[in-house]
Structure formats: C-alpha cells, structure tokens
Amino acid sequence: MAEGDVFARLRLIRTAQIGPVGYRQLIARFGSAAKALDALPELVQRSGGRRFIAAPAAIIEAEIERVARLGARHLFVDDEGYPGLLAELDNAPPVITLRGDSALLQRRSVAMVGARNASAAGCRMAQTIAQGLGQNAIVVVSGLARGIDAAAHRGALATGTIGVIAGGIDIVYPPEHAELQERTAGEGLLIAEMPPGTEPRARHFPYRNRIIAGLSAGTVVVEAVPKSGSLITARLAGEAGREVMAIPGSPLDPRSRGCNQLIREGATLVQDASEIAELIAPLDHRVQPAPMASPQFDFVSDAGDAERRAVHELLGPNFASVDDLVRMSGLPTAQVQMVLLEYELAGRLERGAGARVRLTG
Fold it and tell me: Does the predicted model carry a pTM greater than 0.85?
C-alpha cells in the first residue's frame, strides 16, 4: 500500500463519527479513502450534522511515526494477511496495530478468558489447558488481564499466544503485567485497535473483547461471575457463529456461576485441550485469510430527500435491523445504507450488534 494511501486510510479511520461499518461503506462508495475524505463535508451536511472536521494530519503523522519507532505496524481490514475469521465480523476493526509475530494470525486459535480474581485452581487449569492447546498447534488468544488471562498467556508463550489490549500498543495495563506484555510481544503477538498513547477506559474493553472472540474459532471461559466481561466475550463469540465452551465449577463458588450459566444456556462443557481441539476442527477451513478479506458491502448509492424521509420514519430510539429497514421501506439496500451512513456521520445514529441501528438525535 502506498504511503499516501496509508495516511488517508488512517485519517479516515481516526475521524470522529466514522465507525468500522461506515469506514468500509465509504471505501465501497468512493473507491479510496482520499476521495471519501473529500466527500464527507457534503455527506454530513445532508443529514443536518455540524461542520465536518477530519482527524488532524499532524496527529496521523505522529501515529505513523510512533508505530514505526515501536517496531510495530498497521494492518488494515482489506490488507492481505488480515485474519480471515476477524474479517467476518460486520464491525471488524478497520485497522489493528501489531507488534510481534504476525504469522500467528494465520494459525487456528482459541480464546481463553475468565475471572480477574481467579482461584489458584482456576489459574492452574487455564495454564494447563493453554499448554495442551499449544501441543495441538493451536494459538491461545486472551486479553492480558489479571487472573485467567495471564495464566493462559503464560501457558502458551512457548507455543504461540496473542494478547489483545484495550489501550494503545505502547500502553501497559495492568501495570504489573509489564513483563508479561513485553514477552507476549517478543515471543508471540500483541494487538491494539486504539491509537498509540491511548489509556484504556471502560468503554474500550467491549471493543477489545470483540477482537478476542473474532480472532478465534472458539472461546473457552474458565471462571466468571455473572454479568462479567468474560461472558460478554462468550456472547460475542456465539453471535459470530463460533464455538462457546466453558469449564464447569462448584455452584458454591461465585466464580463458577458464569460458566455454569453458559453451560445451562447451551455452551459446550469441556475439561481439557483435546476436547477443545476436536470442537473447533470444523472451523479450520475458515482460518486462512484471503487477499482483500474485508466483508463485502453492497455498493452504497446516493439517496434523495424522499428516501431519507422513508428511512427516517422507520428509525427510532430502539434498535432495528437494517434488513427490516430495507424490507419495510421498499428501497434498495444501497440507498438505505447511504441514508444510515449520512446519519452516522452526522452523529445521529448508533450501530449495535447484529447489523442493528437506532437514532440518537
């Protein structure tokens, strides 16, 4: 990719109000990031948005320089080598920053997540299973958090592990995992979606969790309390059509309730690495990436006032599926997409999981 194209794509991605879906629709509509940036002021104005301001060029130049200085690199969603399973997500990150062995992205992988305040037995179980997965040539993906995540990474360092962090590629969190994060980058692979220098915030962790689930053929939950981030990762894995697995535990331990709940709701009970390897085998053919692996969107075409009114009447504060909007409006998918894109750029639309949208203003 030419240097100018990298700059334009990164500037488009880092511009406020442009999310993963909008980014790819803009590329599909205008053919390049540079042309999309030129068209954005008019698109924002159409839906009553305020004056459009692209991400400052100096910030993008500083990011490119910082990433290079760290020995990292950007990988865009339509680059050859972008992981095929992750690209299947409708909200796959348009760009990820990599530091380490990117060849691990071409191998089959399993996510392992669980409680931060994990028990000693749970950590031992996670590390043992991670070692077993490595012996089956399976990469272990986790979030470098305390407890189960850390144990899983340590168990897989010798055979292949990927750490996905919520902040920038140069930010260590939690602080006591500085050595583990550095080893993961040196012996495995470290991935960040946020720009360098970004401190992790609560809102960043669900985005990180979707990458953990999206990279992996399946997700294993070792210990988790109800309503935890680990269960969110498991839910995202299920929504993406991946295998969801859980280690059962004592009903007397609150840290087992999340896993037992998952099993009750249909997750597969697993006890060792061989069972996990057997369960994810049917997904092996989907691991390898293809050139331009980004999910394909219908061509996004212009919409007039009548089309905008038709879509607007169907939108509200509750989420509605894009398919329903197309069916009920009677409009071509491409025109509905364009109206939704205009609203998103104007800061008036929120996109939810499962291609669902709602008005926010």
Answer: yes
